[in-house]
Amino acid sequence: MVSNQGSGKPTARRYSPEEKAAAVRMVRTLRAELGTEHGTVHRVATQLGYGVESVRMWVKQADVDDGNIAGVTTAEARRVRELEQENRELRRANEILKRAASFFGAELDRQHRK
């Protein structure tokens, strides 16, 4: 975490896809060189000045995306978010249409009764 100037509140740093990919490559390279996974994430994170858990999550997500372990891929997660957003928009549109239909239906009733 990066400290916010003077406020005492930590702020999350945003890492670019290139920074994340480079960290994942470094972890994988180090694992291959050492022949072990033990301590590699911590070592790379410390060297780059990144959070250990951030790097650990990037490596895990890269393993999922590459099909090495089970899980939801980045592409699948993105598609789910897009579908959820579309669903929210459609629900709002439906609600607006229901209100409009109710309003115009009541208006037609009033005109018909005159």
TrEMBL record:
SUPFAM superfamilies: Homeodomain-like. The keyword Ribosomal protein does not apply. Keywords: Coiled coil. Residues 73-100 form a coiled coil. Pfam families: HTH_Tnp_1 (PF01527). Residues 1-21 are annotated as: Disordered. InterPro entries: Homeodomain-like_sf (IPR009057), Transposase_8 (IPR002514), WH-like_DNA-bd_sf (IPR036388). This is Transposase. Signal peptide: none annotated.
